[in-house]
Amino acid sequence: MKHSNKSLLVLNPGGEQIMRAVSFRDKTVFLVDKPRPEVAADQVLLQPLMAGVCNTDVELFMGYYQFEGTPGHEFVSLVEKAPGDPQLVGKRVVCEINCGCGQCSWCKTGNQHHCPTRKVIGIKDWDGAFAEYVKAPLANVHLVDEAISDEAAVFVEPLAAALKISQQIHINSASRIAILGDGKLGLLIALALRHYNPGILLVGKHRQKLNLAVEQGVSTFHIESPDLLPDLGKILGSFDIVIEATGKEDGIDHGLNLVKPGGAIVLKTTSHSPSVIQLSRVVVGEISVVGSRCGDFGLALAFLQNKWVNVLPLIEAVYELDDFRKAFDHARQPGAKKILVRF
Ligand SMILES: [Zn+2]
Ligand SMILES: [Zn+2]
Q: What's the pTM value of the predicted model, to 2 decimals?
């Protein structure tokens, strides 16, 4: 695959290098000119090729993490500068988003996503990829094989998050597993975990989205009316494992209706409003509750390189950076699939 490495740099009168970037402030999207990031010896400067709009970006826009600045955490880039590893320059990479302190017990055991003082690219205290340039720790970068297109590579971060479940909870072919929620993450979880459990059932409200999963061999159940939600357990029976990916604060409550006594519920929803559940249901049913967030980029890259998951049908539209406002409005429409931004 060929990429033009055209320079987008402009010098302002003070000699500072300026770039174009998206900025969120006061629930407004701005397109601004700002200084290009400077990189330290253990960092890389990346030139994004394509980035995806995530529901987390919408939550940030609404005030999650009191975020202000440049969002964007699902992206594929060319390496522009890599003082610590010059051979990386010009290579195509994806980038893990958690930037730990490097010193604490979590960082030292490979769990920098739990570092109490971590920064997170495009989410917390670190400018993200909806910009002509973004910096990242050198250690966070993974090379992308030529077999993976830019469009597919944008999905590495959410696909890694989907696959994390396979590393947290024992899944075998005999487990009865349901995924609740047919949004972008629910679909990715279904497409990825069907390789661990061919009978996995995706439960959702959008027939068109469920059909995307059916096309890749996933069994589905369509909730035709919200009135059915309290009766799902009676209709579908109970499950050893329920994966809650509804994005809604009441998702866990509906999920608990489906878990067998002694079973597990995996939670993927990060909503800024709190969930209210009757905890005695967890106690009496002896249910394991597992929170699940970021995953293994190497595993996600292997899934894409081997074409075990086809993420391309999950793309709704591709916009240019200058049209970011349109892209973001489109991404916020109910039921929209993945919106990508091209640079
Ligand atoms: Zn995301
Ligand atoms: Zn740390």
A: 0.91
